[in-house]
């Protein structure tokens, strides 16, 4: 039943895309037959929110009297890393490339 409901939702959304009402399409993936509870448990949201990122990267501060930059290349600030597989945690490693 979960898959059927989500498939109907995908089809409704993609019909809106065809009419120009939304800017992206949806499709079937490995989570289409999972309930919200299953996805939440898989993503382990509570644990992810409490985790801290170790390493050399700290906060990036801009002086309050500085004029805002028209652009920033974060590679020059040494805060961009290569895409890495981070295990079976949140499954969002791909988003680094987006």
Detailed description of the structure:
This is Peptidase C1 and/or Inhibitor I29 domain containing protein. One of its GO terms (molecular function) is cysteine-type peptidase activity. InterPro entries: Papain-like_cys_pep_sf, Peptidase_C1A_C, Prot_inhib_I29. Residues 1-39 form the Cathepsin propeptide inhibitor domain. Pfam families: Inhibitor_I29 (PF08246), Peptidase_C1 (PF00112). With 98 residues, the chain is mostly helical. It folds into two domains: 1-33, no CATH class; 35-51 and 74-98, no CATH class. Helix content is 32%, strand content 0%. The chain is built from three helices and no strands. The protein has helices spanning 2-18, 36-43, 45-50. It starts with a helix and ends in a 48-residue tail after the last helix. The mean pLDDT is 76.
Blueprint of the fold:
Elements: H1 2-18, H2 36-43, H3 45-50
TL;DR of this structure?
The chain is mostly helical and 98 residues long.
């Amino acid at each position: 039943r979960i898959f059927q409901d989500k498939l109907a939702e995908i089809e409704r959304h993609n019909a809106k895309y065809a009419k120009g009402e939304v800017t992206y399409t949806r499709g079937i993936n490995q989570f289409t037959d999972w309930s919200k509870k299953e996805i939440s448990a898989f993503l382990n949201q509570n644990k992810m929110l409490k985790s801290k990122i170790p390493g050399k990267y700290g906060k990036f501060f801009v002086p309050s009297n500085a004029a805002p930059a028209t652009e920033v290349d974060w590679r020059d600030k040494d805060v961009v890393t290569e895409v890495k597989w981070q295990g079976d945690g949140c499954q969002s490693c791909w988003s680094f490339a987006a």
